[in-house]
Amino acid sequence: MVHVVVADDKNDRTKIFTHSGEFKFDIKLDRPFDVAVSQTSNLYITPRDDGCVKVYSTRGQQVTTMGRGTLEGPRGITLNNQGHVMVCDSRKKSIFTFHADSEQLLNTIPLSMCENPRYITVNGVNDNIVISDNCQHCVHVLSTTGDQLYQYGTEGSGYGELNGPCGVCTDSYGHIFIADCNNDRVVALSPRGQFIRYIATEDDGLESPRALAISPAGMLMVAEADGKVKKCQYLQ
């Protein structure tokens, strides 16, 4: 069973670890940006410089490629509550949704409100789509049809401010977590986008958080820019 998967773009690898941190194997792939894991444990990886999504089995064997000819700058990737693959394309400023099995393009959501859309997640509680924009220093929250519900963040380091936000994820309660990369902290929001607290900061030894995920054990996994992955107990 796959536990922790890390896209290591500087080393051109996607690395797989057990939940306890034991290295299992890696997949050689030029500049992987993000990775999502399906219910069947397939790995969906977005290479930064290749206009597609590459799909691998839990043993590291390539299964298929999707989105070629449609995608130009795939960045963040996630699976929605129906198991469809959603890709944030920073060059086309759109979200493309593909059927996980047939690879058919199901719909496209334009991101005209974004300057540089990066990471994406879907809130399992309300199906809202969460997109980070690290040039506008904010997170956009959209409905399933792409209508903007609200925006969180402006450039800065104070409350309600972000600086170069990267990874986003949600938990089973609908809380939203943001990797506030250049502020060296992880921000927690309510399902409606109200600030709750900082989960970890520079004072806790956090440095340049890039990607986030919630583990099966309910821990917040934080991948830093330098390659470290840290576990945070966030529920109080």
What does this structure look like?
It is a single chain. The two termini are 28 Å apart. The strands form seven sheets. A four-stranded antiparallel β-sheet has the order 4-5-6-7, with no helix packed on it. A four-stranded antiparallel β-sheet has the order 8-9-10-11, with no helix packed on it. By secondary structure, it is mostly beta strands. It is built from no helices and 24 strands. The mean pLDDT is 95.
List key phrases describing it:
236 residues; Neuraminidase; four-stranded antiparallel beta sheet
The CATH topology annotation of the domain at 1-110 reads as: Neuraminidase
User: Shape, please?
Assistant: globular
By CATH reckoning, the class of the domain at 1-110 would read Mainly Beta
What is the C-alpha radius of gyration, as a whole number of Å? Answer: 16 Å
Q: What's the number of extended β-strand segments?
A: 24
Q: Please provide the ordered H/E string of secondary-structure elements.
A: EEEEEEEEEEEEEEEEEEEEEEEE
**SS-derived structural category:** mainly beta
What is the average of the pLDDT values?
95
Largest sheet: 4 strands, antiparallel
**What is the number of helical segments per DSSP (H or I, 4+ residues)?**
0
The CATH superfamily title of the domain at 1-110: TolB, C-terminal domain
Task: Estimate what percentage of residues fall within beta strands.
Answer: over 45%
Sequence stretches where pLDDT stays below 50 over 5 or more residues: none
Q: Tell me roughly what share of residues is in helical segments.
A: under 10%
Termini separation (Å)? 28 Å
Organism: Lingula anatina (Brachiopod)
Protein name: Tripartite motif-containing protein 3-like
GO molecular function: ubiquitin protein ligase activity
Keywords: Repeat
